[in-house]
Amino acid sequence: MRYKNPTHKKRKNTHALQVSCGNCKTPVAIYQKAGNGNLIKMLAPRIVEAAVDIEKLTGHLRCPKCQMELARKGSYGNTLAFWIIRGKVNTKRLDNYAL
Predict the structure, then answer these.
(1) pLDDT digits (tens, 9 = 90+) for 81-93
(2) Is the pTM here over 0.85, yes or no?
(3) What's the rounded Cα separation, in Å, for the pair 95 and 88?
């Protein structure tokens, strides 16, 4: 991962989740996930690291290697969010990652 998110804030009762491209398996982001459910959306303040600069991203979230569209940019309340396209990403829980 190249870009650390400066707006990232630690939250209680969360775990690290590696989000990768479903096509080429390239890691795209490390996300701070709360709860046990599936990954539906990624809120920008909870993205710890990313392969692309989240603040300067103008369009949708794409894989840096194969350019496949993984998530659509939108908003959730007043925060920037990326809505995951179903079946386009793989997730893996990182138990030894220090948030």
Answers:
(1) 999 999 999 999 9
(2) yes
(3) 23
